[in-house]
Design goal:
Elements: H1 3-27, H2 31-64, H3 70-94, H4 97-129, H5 133-136
Length: 141
């Protein structure tokens, strides 16, 4: 596996850990800790999405000759994640633990499915077809 792909996979795990931290603080509930954990989750997801959307996806699309296909699906799912984060932020501000927990459950399932697709389909395709992948993603994450 290239170091660039390893970095993206590590970012996925960092997002998973941030989400677990948020869920743990919610079980207390410790609203100050939850607010901090939410900020860490949002930062981790945004860092990953930026690396993928601004560097990896365009490079793959150039080689593939199309912006459709797997990168279009991944961008759409990134939008779904952002919408869930917006909802979760509202529940956090309202301090509604049950609604926030339900939103986080949905987010968790979506991220698990999304990351599996990237790690098992898109990333191997990028590794096989995108020249200079490690240099392209240098200084990410």
């Amino acid at each position: 596996m290239s170091s660039a792909i390893e970095t993206l996979v590590r970012q996925h795990r960092d997002c998973d850990q941030a989400l677990e931290g948020l869920e743990a603080s919610l079980r207390q509930p410790d609203w100050d800790a939850a607010t901090g954990a939410f900020a860490r989750l949002e930062d981790a997801l945004q860092g990953n999405f930026t690396a993928e959307e601004e560097r990896l996806f365009p490079a793959f699309e150039q080689v593939a000759g199309s912006a459709g296909g797997p990168t279009a699906v991944m961008r759409h799912e990134h939008g779904d994640v952002r919408a869930l984060l917006d909802n979760a932020r509202e529940w956090l501000q309202l301090r509604d633990a049950n609604a926030l927990a339900a939103e986080l459950d949905t987010l968790s399932v979506l991220l698990q499915q999304h990351n599996l697709k990237e790690e098992n389909v898109l990333f191997p395709m990028c590794r096989a077809h995108v020249p200079g992948l490690d240099a392209l993603l240098a200084n990410v994450g």
